[in-house]
Specification:
GTP-binding protein; nucleotide-binding; alpha/beta; globular; 10 helices; 7-stranded mixed sheet; 325 residues; binds guanosine-5'-triphosphate
């Protein structure tokens, strides 16, 4: 099953940078060296066995944009599963950016009316005024420009975990059996007496599913026109429907922070020509085991019960593997 993901936005807004962080394991510091994308660059990423993401990174210079909207219109906008449109929060040409965005929405409505639309207000690290105020302002502006289109907006930056949060949510909408995966993860969590079990995609380390059913329930900067429960822009938002986690005071940003940290660790391993395989952490409060689940996934089991042995957790992971293949 192939899902086409269009990555669009003005030149310099940061599309190739985020692609290189998420899909190629490069650090943010190297993105300054990236050249402008010429026309469209396509990537294929195998997610979960038969799900393939076909990512189209569309160079944002005006000449390319004009061509996507005219001669290449049907090629670009047909069979799209998700449109991700990136806006530079500091753009000096917001009116022009919005005009192109509206034109792209028209193309999308014409050829892929079912596609989901995600908007990223990117480079949030550059914002000086209170970030939540700026995000709210941009969100309203984008909502207005989107008309009756259902949109989900995230504030992102390549310098923190917010990018993983946004991309995990996006990818999550493309996974057809996410609910079944969550159910299997809950069973594994019960077997290990774990607080939580999380499934990551191997290359990107994006969160695919967790043992707690709704893992996108809280966020720093995200707003959606279709899911009122997620219209949270409060910086310290936390979920209320996860009683087990609450008793351990788990950080609402733990998923995206883990993705970011493991990606950085993997990069360090590659610098010393080592390959990352698995990780065990025994801290005073909890134990965490991160291990391969399938060819395309990693699983993390977090246990707060001190009587549970790490070896037992690893054995349970091994026995759970065939359920996920
Ligand atoms: P085209 O290929 O021309 O369409 O541009 P693009 O959207 O792919 O932009 P690119 O990824 O090449 O990024 C342009 C510049 O923005 C690079 O110098 C990046 O380092 C920088 N950049 C990307 N993301 C961020 C971010 O979150 N914060 C900051 N401060 N800079 C960023």
């Amino acid at each position: 099953m192939k899902k086409k993901v269009l990555l669009m936005g003005a030149s310099g807004s940061g599309k190739t940078s985020m692609r290189s962080l998420i899909f190629s394991n490069n650090p943010a510091s190297l993105t300054a060296r990236l050249g402008a994308t010429i026309d469209v660059e396509q990537n294929h990423v195998r997610f979960l066995g038969d799900l393939i993401l076909n990512l189209w990174d569309c160079g944002g210079q005006d000449a390319f944009m004009d061509s996507y909207l005219t001669t290449q219109r049907s090629t670009i906008f047909q069979h799209v599963g998700v449109l991700i449109y990136v806006f530079d929060v500091e753009s000096r040409e917001m009116n022009k950016d919005l005009e192109y965005y509206r034109d792209c929405l028209e193309g999308l409505k014409q050829f892929s009316p079912e596609a989901a639309v995600f908007l990223l207000v990117h480079k949030m690290d550059l914002v000086r005024e209170p970030k939540s105020l700026m995000f709210d302002k941009k969100y309203k502006e984008l909502q207005k420009a989107s008309g009756d289109m259902v949109i989900t907006v995230f504030g992102t930056s390549i310098y923190d975990e917010s990018l993983y949060k946004a991309w995990s949510s996006i990818v999550h909408t493309l996974i057809p059996n996410a609910a079944i995966l969550s159910k299997h993860l809950s069973t594994l969590a019960e077997a290990c007496n774990a607080t939580e079990v999380i499934l990551f995609e191997r290359t990107t380390f994006l969160v695919i599913a967790t043992s707690t059913s709704e893992h996108h329930s809280s966020s720093q900067f995200s707003s959606s026109t279709n899911l009122p429960s997620r219209t949270t822009t409060n910086m310290s938002a936390s979920s209320t429907d996860e009683p087990v986690e609450d008793s351990h005071h788990l950080d609402p940003k733990r998923y995206e922070r883990t993705s970011e940290l493991i990606k950085a660790f993997k990069y360090s391993c590659s610098r010393v020509r080592e390959e990352f395989r698995s990780l065990e952490m025994e801290l005073s409060e909890f134990t965490a085991v991160l291990d391969e689940m399938t060819r395309n996934t990693y699983v993390m089991v977090v246990v707060h019960d001190p009587t549970i042995e790490t070896a037992a957790v690893k054995l349970n992971i091994r026995m759970a593997r065939r359920k996920f293949e």
